[in-house]
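Narrative of accomplishments. A recurring question from our advisory board has been how the design workflow behaves on a single, concrete structure rather than in aggregate. To address it, we present the structure tokens for one chain from the evaluation set, followed by the sequence designed for it. No filtering or post-editing was applied between the two.
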């Protein structure tokens, strides 16, 4: 029961829900640093294997046996490798991020938009970060959006409305959401989104 609660607490951290009533209650049961370590090890292991369905099923099986993420073989090494990848992404964000009045944004070519968006947000000094990656096989952009703690609008609602208007789809939480936008409308999406953040 303790480990299943810990895994739920890790999920609350990685899904930006630690300040919500249930997430906050879960985190109070554990040492915060331990939760952050376990959440990072688990998340980096999952991300580094996101296209390896067999490994992900193995990971689910290990977790269902109530193992701590750090007790699953090689998870620390997978986390280290992912951390090296991320340090390369940080440099690319510094070199390629663009800023508008109310947000910062960046097109992603060789990593996941959901990882890049956190660095765009953190390094830009803006309250909203946007990253997007072209999915050639579908002719769309997959968009990830994050808001800082001081962001006062519900990003998921704005994104849902705007994406729908542009022939895509989207939505999510107040500070973390996503969208699918047709290829030819991505810059229009960014500009309109920026104007709706006033």
């Amino acid at each position: 029961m303790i480990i299943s609660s810990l895994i739920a607490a890790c999920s609350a951290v990685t899904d930006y829900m630690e300040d919500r009533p249930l997430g906050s209650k879960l985190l109070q049961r554990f040492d915060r640093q331990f939760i952050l370590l376990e959440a990072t090890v688990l998340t980096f292991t999952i991300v580094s294997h996101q296209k390896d369905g067999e490994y992900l099923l193995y990971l689910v099986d290990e977790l269902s046996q109530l193992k701590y993420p750090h007790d699953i073989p090689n998870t620390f090494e997978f986390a280290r490798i992912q951390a090296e990848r991320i340090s390369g992404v940080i440099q690319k964000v510094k070199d390629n991020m663009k800023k508008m009045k109310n947000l910062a944004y960046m097109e992603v070519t060789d990593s996941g938009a959901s990882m890049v968006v956190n660095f765009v947000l953190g390094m830009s000094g803006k309250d909203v970060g946007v990253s997007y990656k072209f999915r050639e096989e579908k002719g769309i952009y997959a968009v990830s959006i994050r808001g800082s703690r001081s962001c006062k609008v519900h990003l998921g609602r704005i994104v849902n409305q705007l994406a729908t208007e542009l022939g895509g789809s989207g939505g999510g939480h107040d500070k973390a959401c996503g969208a699918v936008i047709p290829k030819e409308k991505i810059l229009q999406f960014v500009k309109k989104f920026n104007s709706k953040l006033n």
